[in-house]
Amino acid sequence: MCGAVAGYSIAQSESTGSAAESTTPPKYGTKADFKLAIKELKDALPRNGGVSTDQADLVIHGESPYHHHDGVDHSVVVYPETTEDVVKIVKIANKYKMPVVPYSGATSLEGQVGGYSGGCICVDMSEMDQILAIHEADADLVCQPGVGWMTINETLRSKGIPLFFPIDPGPSATIGGMVSTGCSGTNAVRYGTAKGEWFLNLTVVLPSGEVIKTRRRSRKSSAGFDLTKLFIGAEGTLGIITEVTLRLAPVLPTTVATVQFPNVSAAAEAVRQAINVAGVGASVQCVELVDNNFMAALNKFGTISRKYLEKDGLFFKFQGHSPAALKEVAKIVKGVCEKNGGSGFKLASGPAEADSMWDDRKNALTIGLSLYPDAKGWSTDVCVPVSKLPELVYETKKDIAAAQIPSMIVGHAGDGNFHALLLYKTEEELDVAKIVADRMVKRALALDGTCTGEHGVGIGKKKYLVDELGPGTVALMKKIKRTMDPLGLFNPGKVS
Ligand SMILES: Cc1cc2nc3c(=O)[nH]c(=O)nc-3n(C[C@H](O)[C@H](O)[C@H](O)COP(=O)(O)OP(=O)(O)OC[C@H]3O[C@@H](n4cnc5c(N)ncnc54)[C@H](O)[C@@H]3O)c2cc1C
């Protein structure tokens, strides 16, 4: 399938990222120390299932079917039920100088939850999955970090509370991991990202074992530094989050439309205009860019009876206070699309069809993987200013065509954020995917964008941080890390 791989001649430039500051590597405990640590963990969490050294558990927690990075097994997996349990674990980690890797939904895509090669404790937060309080009058909710965003929304719906949590990454993602990756999703066009104001207050166990709250429940606070933000995107390197207060948004009526274009550049330009020019931006909840390869895969492998034109296109989700308002927005956006060469604009006939059309887009990863049976998928993520998206997508499509690598492009185009899913089976194909992904990142940086719009840094994007942020900024991150975690215990080797 990847016939031209050997002859693929796009030059791969060396990463220009260099260490922002050289530091002495942390000195961890010995194997004998770690054995004692595991024994103490068993005493500290004596309930059945509180601590696992089962080989399958250690391997499963260190690997991920969702990314291309090599897995590293953990030495032990612990399942705390309370903040106090987490404190006990962290104190034992300090005593024996044993690294700690927080683990939540495990849907992160840049190797964030892999183990540490010298040995480490995986702190699986799945037993801390309770919604603790819903304050409908204040539109906020208090929960433990292991609860999923989808569970929160299902719970609110089943209780008849007309509120929802709008940050929507991978379906199995949980709140602790979402805070820690600084994630977002399709709703970011309208509601912003995890780095906005959606997480109000965090309870965090610091690397010393001390417990802090970052603020209180009030909607606003200008009391001092924003320490909530310090932990958003920290990927478990600065603390373990054990409780979260999050803000909710009112549920509004929505509908879905799709439209096709002669090419991705025309589609991306229509997005820019629909959001920024047409005066309906506030009613556009989501705009998802998909390419012809995705549409072909959807027609072939999707569970749908409707068939789409196999061209580059957009999925829109509109919101409005009434069906008439939704129709009006759709009419204006249809006009913008047609002006940019769009055709086949289809508005859902009602809520059921809207849901099923949206599912077509949401199932992109599964559908994309069907393009090359038994292949692994590398889902890359970059983001640029919206006006630069057409150029970025156009050049990336050219690269992918030259590489002849099975792939598809989907993206949260309304934010200038897009992903290429690159498929590979052999080492040779993986090498080609690496070149394409590297060029995509460097192109995004050249366009004043970022190496990751939402998936985070993990181990995969570390090498780009100095180029993107500058040595001073990365040095400051390292200084904060050293100050908070002088023993280097929390998720070593990740982020910076
Ligand atoms: C099909 C699919 C679709 C996706 N779509 C999107 C998307 O649209 N947008 C997007 O942003 N992402 C997307 N992702 C990526 C992923 O869902 C997000 O990165 C998500 O935020 C990770 O949450 P998680 O619970 O799975 O975290 P995990 O993968 O378990 O952990 C992520 C990081 O957080 C740390 N961590 C976990 N829990 C805690 C805690 N309690 N305290 C401190 N640190 C902690 C971990 O150590 C790790 O560094 C997608 C993934 C998949 C598989």
From TrEMBL:
<comment type="similarity">
    <text>Belongs to the FAD-binding oxidoreductase/transferase type 4 family.</text>
</comment>
<keyword id="KW-0274">FAD</keyword>
<keyword id="KW-0285">Flavoprotein</keyword>
<dbReference type="InterPro" id="IPR004113">
    <property type="entry name" value="FAD-bd_oxidored_4_C"/>
</dbReference>
<dbReference type="GO" id="GO:0005739">
    <property type="term" value="C:mitochondrion"/>
</dbReference>
<keyword id="KW-0496">Mitochondrion</keyword>
<dbReference type="Pfam" id="PF01565">
    <property type="entry name" value="FAD_binding_4"/>
</dbReference>
<dbReference type="InterPro" id="IPR006094">
    <property type="entry name" value="Oxid_FAD_bind_N"/>
</dbReference>
<dbReference type="InterPro" id="IPR016171">
    <property type="entry name" value="Vanillyl_alc_oxidase_C-sub2"/>
</dbReference>
<dbReference type="InterPro" id="IPR016164">
    <property type="entry name" value="FAD-linked_Oxase-like_C"/>
</dbReference>
<dbReference type="GO" id="GO:0008720">
    <property type="term" value="F:D-lactate dehydrogenase (NAD+) activity"/>
</dbReference>
<keyword id="KW-0560">Oxidoreductase</keyword>
<dbReference type="Pfam" id="PF02913">
    <property type="entry name" value="FAD-oxidase_C"/>
</dbReference>
<protein>
    <recommendedName>
        <fullName>D-lactate dehydrogenase (cytochrome)</fullName>
        <ecNumber>1.1.2.4</ecNumber>
    </recommendedName>
</protein>
<dbReference type="InterPro" id="IPR016166">
    <property type="entry name" value="FAD-bd_PCMH"/>
</dbReference>
<dbReference type="InterPro" id="IPR036318">
    <property type="entry name" value="FAD-bd_PCMH-like_sf"/>
</dbReference>
<dbReference type="GO" id="GO:1903457">
    <property type="term" value="P:lactate catabolic process"/>
</dbReference>
<keyword id="KW-0809">Transit peptide</keyword>
<dbReference type="GO" id="GO:0071949">
    <property type="term" value="F:FAD binding"/>
</dbReference>
<feature type="domain" description="FAD-binding PCMH-type">
    <location>
        <begin position="69"/>
        <end position="251"/>
    </location>
</feature>
<dbReference type="GO" id="GO:0004458">
    <property type="term" value="F:D-lactate dehydrogenase (cytochrome) activity"/>
</dbReference>
<dbReference type="InterPro" id="IPR016169">
    <property type="entry name" value="FAD-bd_PCMH_sub2"/>
</dbReference>
